[in-house]
Amino acid sequence: MDIFDAIATRRSVRKYTDRPVTDEDIRTGLEAAMMAPSAGNAQPWHFVVVRDAALRARVAELNVYAAMARTAPAGILVCGDLHLEKYPGFWVQDCSAAIQNLLLAAHGLGLGAVWTGIHPVAEREEGFRRAFGLPAEVVPLGYIVLGHPDQHPHSGSRFREDRVHRDVW
Fold first, then answer.
1. What is the DSSP string of 62-118?
2. Structural domain boundaries, residue 98
């Protein structure tokens, strides 16, 4: 798939079949995620691969916007490790870039995915921290619901000239 086609056609998928996601596809997605740029090349990310049905149901309880985690066969919790940062505060950008790579890789593999937010909602952070046994210095940024799509959302161009400024505002 051409990179521009991938960017233009990737959409958030919220309905999945019960077909499992292979370990190979998970690894390919994580390899893509870990190729993301990061401040000072710190790579402050950690990933928790979630297949357990009870944990996926817990995700749906912790984040109302992740209800589809119950029915998707897999998910990936993306976290930033504050002890790995070279430039404090940039872990959010670093892990966000990793998530975007992961979403594009999933799409390229024929999988569907949706990024559900955790940080900066303190209550969600604490819930995920407890449910997944995260150390204090590790902050959950987002949970990626992952599976074979049972829907194929489309949209046209989102380009908006009124949001582009030349040289100055």
1. H-GGGGGGGTSSEEEEEEEEGGG-SSTTTHHHHHHHHHHHHHHHHHHTT-EEEEEE-
2. 15-152
